[in-house]
Predict the structure.
Amino acid sequence: MFVYTPHITPRISYIIQLLKERWQIEVVVTADNELFQQSGDVKIVYAGERIDATSYFIQSTGLLQQHDIRKQRINCFEWEGVKAFYETNDDFGFDVFAAVFYLITRYEEYLEYEPDEYGRYAHWNAVAWKEGFLHQPLIDIWLMKLEAKLKQCFSSFTIHHSAFTFLPTYDIDIAWSYKHKGWLKTVGGLLKHPSTIGKRLQVLSSKEKDPYDSYAWLQQLHEQYQLQPIYFFLLAKRNSEHDKNILPSKTALQQLIRTTAAVALHPSTQSTVNTSLLKEEKEMLQWISRKKITATRNHYIQFHLPHSYRTVLVHGFTEEYSMGYGTVNGFRASTSHSFLWYDLEKEETTALRVHPFAYMEANSFYELHQTSEEALEEMKMICAEVQKVNGTFISIFHNHFLGTDPMFNGWREMYEKFVAEVRGTK
């Protein structure tokens, strides 16, 4: 496929690279009109005006020619059953390249916004929330529609799709409820919750399983349905208000990590303030697991663009799994496919691959106050959207939701039902 544009900018190159990866085809972008006219391939003109009658014309609205960050006028309208913006008078109906760029780079997160109580980018600032398409992988839908229109114009146009994938991930914030916490914390827990004394003593004497211990059950589930999960371990050396994990010095936690196939780092909230802690936590996980650690997802989904992503790059991470909200479920970057992060301030494509998640059970339970049945319906609805576009459905669960704590009755059964259904439709 040939794409002609009068001026090739880093932003345009990024979108072309995205198309190449998504469609698994060779795409050549050129500013040489003569060379473009000589090509007999599928041809797209991306410019301010149409230059011939044989090419597919997408009118540029200017975003990809800019070299700064400025407030954008985002006026959404209904287009073929979905929302769109940057409306144009061309063969497609809107500047799809600019719209994709705006959403996938998280352009709006570089502008002024009202943070939530944890200082994070709040979902209510996002155009996807305001316009009601947060539950849709809108970029994926747009690109599938563009593919269909190009096939109508060029019979030789063929592309290859990746298959739908389900990737279960788990955040291990507190590996056990009662066990391996040390006498000081155990006594403190008894004084704070005296009604649990019987249960605690049963667990501590190994007569009952710890209520947060869901690891053997999960392993059996993964083997039964041939799943390849990723476990994100929180390894803060000191506990804090939000980092209440079992300390990494505990032998039991080290053994759990070493017997887990795919492990990644769950950086503490402390490391977002003191980035030297990120290096320490990564080195600790590598020492415990005896593996090179390249994947990360921040605790409390605590990250800010571009600084957090630059920091993980500096520390040798290449896979990032924080792209989602810690308040509502849906598609923060409007896609269910992984993508290379574009540093909007530096105007460059980086080597950091972003893996967006679309569902976290903590959002359903703590933020939306859903029952396990209501959460199952939401998860199935979001997953169905991903299946339509051959994306990857990444879910986040915590070990304590899937154990035996009475607070989370029904969630283990809900999750098992979902897994059975999603693997049954593969």
About this structure: The domain at 165-176+212-424 is CATH 3.20.20.370 (TIM Barrel). The longest strand covers residues 165-172. DSSP finds 15 helices and 15 strands in the chain.
